[in-house]
Every structure is written in structure tokens, then in C-alpha cells.
Amino acid sequence: MASYLQIADDEKGYDLDLFCVPRHYEKDLDKVIIPHGLIMDRTERLARDIVRDMGGHHIVALCVLKGGYKFFADLLDYIKTLNQNSDKSVPLTVDFIRIKSYCNDKSSDVVKVFGGDELSGLSGKHVLIVEDIVETGRTMQTLLALLSESRPKMVKVVSSPSLLLGFSSLLVKRTPRSCGYRPDYVGFEVPDAFLVGYALDYNEYFRDLSHICILNDEAKEKYKV
User: Fold this and answer.
1) DSSP summary character for residue 165
2) Among 204, 197, 195, 199, which residue's Cα sits nearest to residue 225?
């Protein structure tokens, strides 16, 4: 079972005026639920765990776009620092895939994968999937099924131990809609609220927000498509 930092359902969060929040978003957010500094500290620890578990293997780090790009970049920076300053290191190459499953604030039943036809090069490789958030788990099940066709040697997800195939996710949401899927590495377990910031978006807005915040109902209407 992956360890994680749990954000309680009754977590009061932090007032926006305690942090640097872009002025154009000040009326769109209820509160800061995970400050940027805490995200970075937790990401550093995940990097240490990954190097401990996967050190010595040549890893292909697969970033799930678009929401995973900030977490991906920061996680790899921490792994690179560990490679330079510890006895165990992880040779890394990177690849990218884009997945779309949301319409406004709802996760749809249709999971669209872009770039999946280029994954044949992962055959025989040790793969670490890096994702921003796991909610229902359907998106990751779709991706893992697609990856299995490429016959990677190992897959791990940063956000379940399975066949040395790695998956890391910054966030896992507590929701009755979940299929029960859990990543190998998890940053935070979060309440069933719509979260934005640190590259998590609402219709492409809020990726430029450093902290992870709860979106208010007025903003959902304001940016609705």
C-alpha cells in the first residue's frame, strides 16, 4: 500500500490572502488546500522513494499531459539531484502521452488517448507513469491496458505495485465513483472536491496557479464551455 499525506474532508484550508495568488483568479477560488511548498516537499520524498525502489534500472518516465507536466518536471528535478548526490541512481529517459476525460467539472465515460500509437518503443522497458490526479481510476485503467500491448518490462505509477510497472500520482481523490485503483506512489489523498492549480485545470484555466485550490461554483459557471 502506497503511503500518502491525507487531506481530511473537513480540512478548512487556508485563506487566499495568505498566499500569492494571481489577481485574475482571486474571485474564483474558495481556499488554498495544498500550498506550493508542501507540494514540493512531498514531491521530493516521492523522488527519494522512487530512487530507492527503482535505482539501477533504466527508467522511461512517461508524463500524462496536460495536467501532469508540473509534477513531472519537479519530480524529475528531484530525482536528478538524488542521482548526483547518492550512491544509488536511476538512468532516465522521458516520453509523453496526452489523455482527456473531463468535460467542465465532470469526468466523462469517454477516455481519449493521444499519442498511444507511439508507445511501441516501450517494449521491454521499465516505465514510470507520472499523473496529476486519480479520481475514478478509469483513465489509468485505459492507459495501463494500452501500455500492456507494448509489453513493457515494468510499469509503476506515481500517484500499485504491479509487475514492476510504476505509476506515480500527485493526488488521489476519495470519491464513491472510484473503481478502487491505487497508484504505486501517491503524494496526497484529497477530498471529493474540484481542485485546480499546479497544472490541474478547469477547461484549460488555472494551470498557472502555484497552489492547489478548491474552485468555487461561480467560477465553474464563469469558465464553462
Assistant:
1) -
2) 204
Cell representation of residue 39: 507540494
Q: H-helix or E-strand containing 158?
A: strand 154-158
Which residue bears the cell 504491479?
162
H-helix or E-strand spanning residue 46: helix 36-54
pLDDT tens for 196-221 read 999 999 999 999 999 999 999 999 99
Residue 199 near residue 218 (C-beta atoms within 8 A)? no
pTM above 0.85, yes or no: yes
Give the H/E segment covering residue 74: helix 69-85
Paired strand residues for 132? none
Of 39, 32, 34, 9, nearest to 176 (Cα)? 9
The per-residue pLDDT for range 16-55, each reduced to its tens digit, is 999 999 999 999 999 999 999 999 999 999 999 999 888 7
**Is residue 21 a contact partner of residue 35, using CB atoms and an 8 Å limit?**
no
| In the block, residue with C-alpha cell 487531506 | 7
DSSP state of 180: S
Counted residue by residue, the chain has a size of: 225
* Burial of 89 per CB tally in 10 Å (0-12, 13-18, 19+): middle
Q: Give residue 163's pLDDT.
A: 34
51 and 82 Cβ atoms separated by less than 8 Å: yes
Nearest Cα to Cα of residue 157 among 146, 166, 165: 166
Write down the mean pLDDT value for the chain: 85
Residue 138 CA to residue 12 CA, distance in Å, equals 29
